[in-house]
Every structure is written in structure tokens, then in C-alpha cells.
Design brief:
This protein is of the alpha/beta class. 43% of the residues lie in helices and 18% in strands. The strands form four sheets. Strands 2-7-1-8-9-10 form a six-stranded parallel sheet, sandwiched between helices. Strands 11-12-13-14 form a four-stranded parallel sheet, with helices on both faces. The two termini are 14 Å apart. The mean pLDDT is 92.
């Protein structure tokens, strides 16, 4: 049987491509015996088992046991300097297309269903002649285009992107609306289906907006800040629902903690650090405080540091000011990684309720 393929595109960044890829991976494995994944162009790379890979491809390899195909799952990576080398003629224009086409062809021979995830918005990769529309054409894969929720903005974004895909003769078949406002879900879908009723496009829905999926884990915060996460390593996948500055008195800060708060506290606030550390063993308190970011140049006292470490409360130490850290974290958009088992299990469970895989599969 020929391998069925689907290319996951998006109208913009942060629409939820990786979440949809995870969902389709989970759902496809219920029907197909062999399901594979490839991220043809990797703009955000990490080291994984000795390979330089896109972080999403590495995550899929880790979560779904695809390590034997890891060398094929991220065929073209954009490492620092790649853009300049390509424009200077040091990288042949044919190399990206050759690498991508070769990897996809090899994976097609091994799988019954292949998920191909694009990178960023439609134009990402244009500098190396491999934007999303071009890659979809190279792959010969029908396109599922993910978009954020809404009505007018969805129509505008889809029309803008369709122009690029049509120019590259890519086959867009499905529009998937993600991050819907629950109370507007049915009305939004009804109007979007009406808007695209004169086309051959399938308009379908994905998830309602879910703050759990949107918020970072402690490990993501540590990686984003470029610091190690100390304390109990079992807490690294804990999700931080709220970010709070510990600027008030210790008692007031403790009293006003919300569920699973990441507390930013200045290193000179010994009394607040000691209070948080001392209360860490109390279940109700641990439910409300996910961990600490201890900021600033001032050193903590020796006894404060000892109490902090003995408590095993998760914490990150950074020398930036509290306001700088707070601003960076507020601007951060969470990405899903292989260590985020809690998020991945949640995605898989709710995908069965929200995503109509049989309808999508029939459209391919």
C-alpha cells in the first residue's frame, strides 16, 4: 500500500503546528501500523543522540520511539551562518531540495502514514528555496493549514497564505482552526465553513484555547533563561500557570499565590526565599507554588542557600533583575518538548474528542 502523506502548515507562527502533529501522530497510530514523522526544514536545532536536529523532530523521535529514523527526520537544518553561506553561493541551491526529497522518499518506503511538519509561517525557508509551500510540493503531500481562532482574521490569513501555495502548485485540502474560544466555537466554525463553501477545502476544528498547553514548564523556563533547574528533578515538567513578582511582604506574597505560580524573587529577599523553602513540604502550598526564579546580583546568605537546597524546591538562579526576567517570561511562547509528558498525554487524550481524524484521512 502506498504511503499516505500530510503536510502540516500554518498561517503564522504559534498557531499550534507541533500540537497538531502530536495529535495526528497519536490518532493515525490507531489506524495505521507504521506512522512516521519528518520536519524537512529545521530552523531551531538541538543535539540529539549525536545528531544536529530540529527540536520538534527530536521530540517526536524521543516520544514515539523513532530513533532509528532520526537521521532522516530533520534533513535540512538552518544552523547559524547557513543563510549567509547560501546567499554567498557556498551552499548549492539544489542541496536543500535534494536532502528533503531524499529523506521523504526513504521514509515513504518505511511507513503507511507520514506526517510532514512545516517550519513557522508559509514563507520560512524561502532564503534556501525551501519555504513551506515549496516543501509541500517537493513532498507531493496534501496540505493541512493550521490557523488561530476567529472569523475575519482566519479568512484573511488563509487567503494570504493560499496565494503562496497556489503559486508553488501545492495542494491545500484542509483548513484547521485551532485555539478556539469555547463559547464561540460553533458559531465561528459555521461562518468559516460558509466563507469557504465555494472551494474544495475541508474546514475543520482542533482544540479550544487551553492555558495548560500555552503555559511553560519549569524546564522550559530554565532553558529559555539559559540556566540550570535546581531542586527536585522530578518537578521539571511541572506547568507554570501564573508568573508573579515577589515584591510585596512575604506574608502577602504567600497569601496571594495562585495555582501553580512561578515566583520571581530578588536574591536579597532572604526572608521570602526562606519562607517559601520552609513551606515547600506542605501539599497545599506546593500546589500553589511551582518554583522560584531567584534574580539579581546580590548573593544569598549561606544559611538561606542551605535552607533553599535542603527543601528541594525547584529554583533557577539568574543575575538579571526581576523586571528583566519578568518581561522575558511574559513574552515567552511555550514549545512542547520530550520531557513534557504531562502536556503530551493531555494533547493525546483531548485530541480524540476534538479532532475528526477520519474526515481528515478521507480528504487525503
Amino acid at each position: 500500500m502506498a504511503c499516505k502523506k500530510i503536510f502540516i502548515a500554518a498561517t503564522g507562527q504559534h498557531c499550534g503546528k507541533t500540537t497538531i502533529s502530536l495529535s495526528l501522530m497519536h490518532l493515525a497510530r490507531k489506524k495505521y501500523e507504521r506512522v512516521g514523522f519528518v520536519k524537512p526544514l529545521g530552523p531551531k536545532c538541538i543535539e540529539y543522540n549525536g545528531l544536529t536536529m530540529d527540536m520538534d523532530a527530536a521530540m517526536m523521535a524521543s516520544v514515539y520511539g523513532l530513533d532509528s529514523d532520526a537521521h532522516l527526520m530533520s534533513p535540512m537544518t538552518l544552523t547559524p551562518g547557513s543563510t549567509r553561506k547560501f546567499l554567498d553561493g557556498k551552499i548549492s541551491p539544489e542541496i536543500p531540495r535534494t536532502l528533503i526529497a531524499g529523506a521523504i522518499h526513504e521514509l515513504e518506503q518505511k511507513y503507511d502514514f507520514l506526517i510532514i511538519e512545516g517550519a513557522g509561517h508559509g514563507g520560512v525557508g524561502s532564503v534556501v528555496g525551501a519555504n513551506n509551500a515549496q516543501v509541500a510540493t517537493i513532498a507531493g503531500a496534501p496540505v493541512l493549514m493550521v490557523t488561530n481562532g476567529g472569523i475575519g482574521n482566519v479568512i484573511d490569513a488563509v487567503e494570504l497564505n493560499l496565494a503562496l501555495y497556489e503559486r508553488e502548485k501545492a495542494d491545500v485540502r484542509v483548513i484547521m482552526v485551532n485555539k478556539l474560544v469555547p463559547e464561540k466555537r460553533e458559531r465561528s466554525l459555521a461562518y468559516l465553513k460558509k466563507a469557504f463553501s465555494g472551494t474544495d477545502l475541508l474546514v475543520t476544528s482542533a482544540f479550544d484555547y487551553n492555558p495548560i498547553l500555552a503555559h511553560p514548564t519549569l524546564q522550559h523556563v530554565a532553558v529559555m533563561l539559559g540556566q540550570s533547574l535546581k531542586g527536585n528533578p522530578d518537578d521539571r515538567s511541572r506547568i507554570c500557570h501564573t508568573i508573579q513578582l515577589g515584591a510585596a511582604s512575604s506574608q502577602r506574597v504567600i497569601d496571594h499565590l495562585e495555582d501553580s505560580t512561578l515566583l520571581i524573587v530578588t536574591s536579597s529577599r532572604d526572608e521570602l526565599i526562606v519562607t517559601a523553602s520552609s513551606l515547600h513540604h506542605i501539599p497545599d502550598f506546593r500546589k500553589r507554588l511551582a518554583g522560584l526564579v531567584i534574580s539579581g546580583h546580590a548573593p544569598m546568605s549561606l544559611i538561606t542557600r542551605q535552607i533553599l537546597d535542603d527543601s528541594k524546591i525547584p529554583y533557577i538562579r539568574i543575575e538579571e533583575t526581576s523586571s528583566e526576567v519578568f518581561h522575558r517570561l511574559r513574552e515567552h511562547v511555550s514549545k512542547i518538548g520530550p520531557e513534557d509528558r504531562e502536556k503530551i498525554e493531555l494533547i493525546n487524550s483531548i485530541s480524540e474528542r476534538y479532532i475528526d481524524f477520519p474526515a481528515i484521512d478521507a480528504f487525503l
